[in-house]
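Exam review. A common question shows you a sequence with its structure tokens and asks you to describe the fold in words. Practice with the pair below. Do the first one on your own.
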Amino acid sequence: MANLKIRTYKKNETHPDTTISIPISILRFAKKVIPKHAFAALHEKGIDIDMIVELAQNEDIRGNVVEIEEHKKNKKIVIAIE
């Protein structure tokens, strides 16, 4: 079963500082319980969670969907469908 993975990294680290996994099968429902501030943060970065949900339904789409590098904060966020 595929998962939506959201990983945060500190600058120049190869292992994630935080990983969030959401099974694709419950993604449509899970987005209803994700805190509003998390959606706001994603929206602020230009990430449309509804589009990611739609992409995740396609079994041919796997891998990194979005990579955000916040240079001033020395961190990177990777959203992937695995």
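Now try the second one, then compare your answer with the model answer below.
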Amino acid sequence: MKTCPYCKNPIQEDWSYCRNCNNPLVVNLEDALYRNVRFSYDEPEIYHLDLEEENSEYETTIIKDEDIDQKIKKIDETLERKEILGESIPGSLLLEKSGLYYKKRDLPNALKNLELALKNFKEENDLLNEAICHNELGIIQEDNGLFDQAIYHFNRSLEILEELDDKPKIIKIFNNLGNIYFLFKDLEHSYKYYQKAFKLSKQEKLIFEEIKSSSNLVEVLYLLKDYDRIKKILERNIDFFKEKEDIYGIIQTEIKYGKLYYLMDENYDESYHHLTKALELINTIRENISIYIKGKLEWECYLYLGKIYHLQDNNSKAENLYLQSLEAVRVFEISDSIKEGAILENLAELYLSKGDIKKAIEYYDLSREIFYKFGDSNKNAELKFKIGKIYLEYEEDTTKAIDFFEEALEIYEDLEYFKESAIILHKLGDIHLHKRMTETAISYFERARTYYQNIQDEYNMNLLTEKIKSLNI
């Protein structure tokens, strides 16, 4: 009899995961293309919790809406029959129904059924299913952009799971908390929860969860520019996925390598190689995965390949790739997302380089609106400043430029970003000086000088001091 490579317990030939330790079993690449596969190693990956282990491997195969509707209809018939007979409604049916609506991306109905399921499980004092409901509610509220509510539900799920001492599921909640803090760039909390997931996985010898947690951690390390640590993690991960002949893990790691080499400004050819390799592998499995999963795998490949072509001044190819990336995101995202905001910003930069000023402003503003929606004040201010510069330098519309600069300045001052505030004040001073409004210009220069003093930028502080002196003569 075969044994599990993780826990060494006996396993059956047709098992896709071990019923003893819940880890995926070794399969060859050809077999992997024709079985139900694990939920993709998205970045960062969202973790659902399921009571039945058979459901722990999320569908990536194509599921038609009519098939889901049939399943929902059967559940409704069962619920109606139980209501007529005066029997209690099992929370498990409502939880299953919610999951089906989630697969259809029908969040209102998914949310409604989850809340009913949670109420039932509370009445039954079913703690594990309570935790599952709270986690799923967190995921839906995250999709809705209601981050405070999502964090509440993830924390509530975590409290219950810690009471039950269910460490595998605790690891998943740590990752979900890391994901949501990552979304609004709270890197301190995001890093903390990913690190907790990684350490607990290692402690419990859950190698697969350890690998996935470290893969999520890489996303924070990109922003921290800790490239050496990223390389070490990816080297280990690619060896693991190749050993297990896990094509999905290989694809995600190839994408992360491509992103790494691009961000390092070290070797764009190497970045191109890894990203195109990932797309080739995705193409080999396209018939066996849904367009939803395909989009989640492809979007960053297209985005970073577009960036590479943009650097090479191949604007038509870059534009096509950015639009492919945007199309992929819109397939799997329910509404506006940070990902879409990032792609729109790249399109704006592309149009600016092509001299299409109208489109550049339009796409910067669309991107800005998305970042504003997700509470990224820094990015909102940055894009307002960019739009202001375009009006000033390309359109020579100082009125609109001043409006955008002042709006960006207000945000930066609220954030206490002294350097950015000083730069805008300096620029506003120059604009008003050009308009022969000397007193107004001096007031901007003095405010800018104060901020430069706060950050001990002596060069710019002295420059402004001399400029103010010359204007007062």
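Model answer, second protein: Residues 50-204 form a domain with the Serine Threonine Protein Phosphatase 5, Tetratricopeptide repeat fold (CATH 1.25.40.10). The longest helix spans residues 291-311. Full marks require stating both points clearly.
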